[in-house]
Design goal:
It is a single chain. This protein is an alpha/beta fold and about 260 residues long. It has one domain: Alpha/Beta hydrolase fold, catalytic domain (Rossmann fold), CATH 3.40.50. The chain has helices at about 35-40, 70-80, 95-105, 135-145, 150-155, 155-170, 175-180, 210-220, 235-240, 240-255, and strands spanning about 1-5, 10-15, 20-25, 45-50, 85-90, 110-115, 200-205, 225-230. Helix 3 (about 95-105) links the parallel strand 5 (about 85-90) and strand 6. Helix 1 (about 35-40) crosses helix 10. The longest helix has 16 residues, at about 240-255. The protein is globular and about 45 Å long. The two termini are about 30 Å apart.
Length: about 260
């Protein structure tokens, strides 16, 4: 267990493996469990870094609302703590917005890989993903917004495991609302041209939380953005983890080669 301070706020993070850091930024309210599939795929040739946003899990939970600049500064603190100088940043949803903000303000970000991320905060509808961590039935119901129906029917054991992890590490309502507030006013179409890092965008065609058209707008905004779609819901990196891991590792290897 490791922590780093950003001002008075303690941020929890874990590292595994050696090499160029790959730092994962989670969706609003979700604990580090959400990156477990990708963490396992990159740890070894890369240093996998998973952390909890302020308001989630083992990080501090100061009163909100939070803004995007503060959350990006938290990411910068984690990058500094692991000595990252040329970092691959992977984000989902709100985590993707944080990664984009960091990419234009930090010299430590080499590439971006963004999942379920749109161009404007007003186009994110993440309410369906939240449930109180102590309410297991409600947690299970929210997975309908996270995954498409076929995955839900085919992988009941995986869904049970996700409920267990969410109960143990997700944010409270107050933490989730504080994080969601950071999307207010987010509009990458105003400044996306400043993000010149190679950017892989992956979006589920059945994403109920962020419309695919918003991801297309984001791709058009980024000078080096490349959008790929998968038949999946919002958490495509969980639902289609093997496909995503192959593409993610290939993308990283291309940039490190």
């Amino acid at each position: 267990m490791s922590t780093v301070e950003n001002g008075a706020v303690s941020l929890y993070y874990e590292t595994d493996g050696e090499g160029t850091p790959v730092v994962f930024v989670p969706e609003a309210g979700l604990g580090g469990w959400s990156w477990g599939w990708q963490h396992a795929a990159v740890a070894g040739p890369y240093e996998a870094v998973v952390w909890d946003l302020r308001g989630t899990g083992r990080s501090d939970r100061p009163p909100g609302p939070y803004d995007l600049e503060t959350l990006a500064d938290d990411l910068e603190s984690v990058l500094a703590a692991v000595g990252a100088r040329n970092t691959h940043v992977v984000g989902a949803g709100l985590g993707g917005a944080i990664a984009l903000e960091a990419a234009r303000t930090s010299s430590r970000v080499a590439t971006l890989s963004l999942f379920g991320t749109g161009a404007r905060g007003s186009e994110f509808d993440l309410e369906g993903l939240y449930a109180p961590p102590e309410d297991r039935e409600a947690l299970r119901e929210t997975l309908e917004a996270a995954f498409d129906g076929e995955f839900q029917r085919a992988q009941p054991d995986v869904l049970d495991g996700i409920v267990d992890w969410r109960a143990d590490g997700d944010a409270s309502r107050a933490g989730w609302e504080s994080q969601i507030a950071a999307l207010e006013g987010f509009d990458a179409t105003d400044w996306g041209y400043e993000v010149t890092q190679p950017t892989l965008l992956v979006h589920g065609t059945a994403d109920e939380c962020v419309p695919l058209e918003s991801a297309r707008d984001l791709e058009a905004t980024l000078p080096r953005g490349d959008l790929e779609t998968l038949e999946a819901g919002h958490l495509a990196f969980v639902e289609r983890s093997r496909t995503v891991n192959d593409r993610l590792v290939g993308f990283l290897e291309e940039r490190d080669g």
